[in-house]
Structure to design on (329 residues):
């Protein structure tokens, strides 16, 4: 995982991934972060090989719960995989997620780079109960 | 609204059926259908990979996964096969947006389900990233992003006694409205082919 020192603090790509995931899930129209085989294999790999992972030893970007994040040259790049509610316009949801993530990243002191979004499913909002 | 639980490809074929018949030669449909060919190729790769892993670890109890783990992986694998391709529908200064063909097909099929006398069958959706966006409806969004032209090819079966030109016109309108409402882009082309009759 990349770690870069900003004037205020050291920000990790894992932190950016967590921040992006939360921002996405708080956006109206997002049903969930959509798991892919990469996520499952990533979790299995961590569970099997790194029971107590040491983030400082992990190189490259961080993939966590359908969110991939990388900090490069003081700029954070993010890729999210989501499912959206059919009652919302998917591209409007995507724009809203991008703006929330961008704002969240800017609040850390790191620059916001590309925020790519893959909408893997468009479905009904599950009924409560 | 109720969406079908059976995992299906964009052409309507069941993924479970495709998986269960992987050993058999591809049928006429599977030979010519891009969805089936792609899914079969991916499934064969998946099966070869899992077979290699299984052979290597078959005698090592430490590598025996719990049933829940195996089921999780297969659920995800089936879901990924169903998603088909990712289509880049929007370029934005801050990043891109892709939508899976399966997600778009869901919206198309839902629109078709609301048109009496029509059954949706194969659905293929493409976007052109080569074409420069034109200033027509649906090619620029409110935030300044560029929307790539979307083309929908839908094959349907029609009930007897319906007036096909009128019904197809209604269907085309409904698909356009549904994609605009649920996705936020108006397809530039909606090709509809009536390929069969079905009994009410």
């Amino acid at each position: 995982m990349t770690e870069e020192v900003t004037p205020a603090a050291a920000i990790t790509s894992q932190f950016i991934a967590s921040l992006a995931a939360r921002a996405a899930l708080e956006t109206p129209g997002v049903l969930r972060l959509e798991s892919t085989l990469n996520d499952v294999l990533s979790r299995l790999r961590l569970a099997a090989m790194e029971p107590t992972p040491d983030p400082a030893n992990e190189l490259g970007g961080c993939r966590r719960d359908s969110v991939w994040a990388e900090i490069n040259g003081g700029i954070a790049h993010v890729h999210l995989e989501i499912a959206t509610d059919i009652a919302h316009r998917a591209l409007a949801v995507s724009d809203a997620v991008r703006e929330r993530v961008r704002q969240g990243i800017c609040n850390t002191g790191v620059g916001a780079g590309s925020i790519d979004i893959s909408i893997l499913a468009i479905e009904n909002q599950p009924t409560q109960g | 609204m109720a969406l079908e639980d059976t995992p299906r490809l964009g052409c309507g074929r069941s993924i479970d059926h495709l998986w269960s018949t992987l050993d058999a030669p591809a049928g006429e449909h599977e030979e010519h259908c891009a969805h089936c060919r792609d899914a079969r190729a991916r499934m064969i790769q998946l099966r070869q990979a899992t077979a290699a892993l299984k052979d290597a670890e078959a005698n090592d109890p430490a590598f025996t996964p719990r049933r829940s783990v195996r089921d999780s992986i297969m659920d995800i694998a089936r879901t990924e096969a169903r998603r088909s391709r990712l289509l880049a529908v929007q370029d934005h200064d801050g990043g891109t947006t892709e939508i899976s063909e399966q997600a778009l097909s869901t919206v198309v099929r839902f629109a078709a389900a609301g048109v009496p006398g029509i059954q949706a069958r194969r659905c293929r959706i493409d976007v052109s990233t080569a074409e420069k966006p034109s200033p027509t409806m649906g090619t620029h969004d409110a935030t300044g992003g560029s929307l790539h032209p979307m083309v929908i090819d839908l094959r349907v079966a029609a009930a007897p006694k319906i007036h096909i030109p009128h019904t197809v016109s209604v269907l085309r309108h409904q698909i356009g409205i549904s994609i605009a409402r649920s996705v936020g882009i108006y397809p530039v082309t909606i090709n509809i082919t009536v390929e069969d009759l079905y009994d009410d």
Summary: The first strand of chain B starts at residue 86 and ends at 92. The CA atoms of residues 49 and 55 of chain B lie 10 Å apart. Strands of chain B lie at 86-92, 95-100, 118-127, 146-147, 150-158, 189-197. Residues 134-138 of chain B have pLDDT under 50 and may be disordered.
